[in-house]
What we know:
- By secondary structure, this protein is mainly alpha-helical.
- It has helices at 3-23, 35-42, 46-58, 77-101, 104-120, 128-145, 148-168, 183-189, 194-206; strands spanning 32-33, 62-65, 69-72.
- The protein folds into 2 domains: 3-72, Arc Repressor Mutant, subunit A, CATH 1.10.10; 77-210, Up-down Bundle (Four Helix Bundle (Hemerythrin (Met), subunit A)), CATH 1.20.120.
Amino acid sequence: MNKTSRKISSTEHAYQIIKNHILSHKLAPGTRLTSRKLAELTGVSIIPVLHALQRLDNEGLIETVPGWGSRVINLDEETIRDKYYLREAIECQVVRILAKKITEPQKNELLNLAREIDKAGAVSPIKNTYWKKEYEFHLTLARFAGSKSLYKEIQKINLFRFFHRSKEGLLLSGSTLPPDHHQKIVQAILTGDPDVAEKAMRNHIHHSSHRIFNNGNEI
């Protein structure tokens, strides 16, 4: 193995360990991240750790405070609202684009995926397999829209959603999703009307199952 391969392997190793610790909240929101402690945690040198932190920063799981250092992103109400407002804006734009350009193969793939998700979401409690499929669904929408920037942002937003959900839980106790929750989005896209597609996405995002604040407000 050459020197470059070892460096890439060590960076990926550090990235996966730190990321898993963040998503599982072993590294709690707001935790200060020092390269020395993370090197001990991951078993690699400081340089790969720094590269891994840069990647996690780009993904939005950590944030760098000038003159202070890096920390796990906070889950304060302001941050949560900001992320979900961004999600709404981006996902609505994605379906507007798709309403004008979706192809027949894309239509079939989205319908099949939507049916699978809605079937998995019709039971309570919701299982992790549902959230993985839902993540895939929203990424597929962005991929079919053909915008690399939108795809990248949806990746980051959905990673944040996973991070937040793993601590708070987005589904209300005992609630389930409508059996056609995601199929409605696809059917709206297939009308060819961007306004209809956008309305369906907003309804999806605003559904009561996505209430995330103690005061009952919805995102």
